[in-house]
Design goal:
globular; 6-stranded antiparallel β-sheet; about 40% strand
């Protein structure tokens, strides 16, 4: 089963790049400087930030459908990130190296299946979840802190 993982578009965050800390706070965002790698996963380029890079901690609506599972949570975006990650049949290291909660949603935004996996178990779980014809997409979240990690669809 072919699948695709795509980062979040920089268009959603570009207006925050370069704002002062006070301006960010007024928009519910906060700037961080990466001081520990890995530790700050960028959701546009789908990579861990390198020490010294700045990131913005922002709220992101990961599942916006009008359902009981509507979800938003904090995510990091590398300040200045432009190149949206997109790959077929490949789990990026930023996901591979973390414990993930995979949540399979149907078109109505209802969970139809889920799994908790890491490393070599991620791809087989994605393929198993996508075998269900009712699954529209899978949202991956970091299991420990609950942050949205990425959207997975059929390729």
């Amino acid at each position: 089963m072919d699948f695709a993982i795509k980062g979040i578009s920089a268009d959603d965050f570009r207006h925050l790049y370069g704002l002062s800390d006070e301006e960010l706070a007024a928009k519910g965002a906060k700037r961080y400087v990466c001081d520990n790698a890995p530790g700050y996963p960028d959701r546009v380029e789908m990579r861990d930030a390198e020490i010294g890079e700045t990131l913005l901690l922002v709220n992101h609506v990961s599942m916006g459908k009008d359902s009981p599972y509507k979800a938003s949570h904090a995510i990091y975006v590398r300040e200045g990130a432009e190149d949206t990650y997109e790959a077929k049949n490949e789990v990026p290291p930023v996901m591979y190296n973390r414990l993930l909660s995979l949540r399979a949603f149907d078109q109505a935004g209802m969970i139809v299946d889920a799994d908790v996996v890491t490393g070599n178990d991620i791809q087989p779980s994605i393929e198993r979840l996508l075998e269900n014809e009712n699954v529209e997409h899978i949202d991956a979240h970091n299991a420990a802190r609950g942050c949205f990690s990425g959207r997975i669809t059929r390729a």
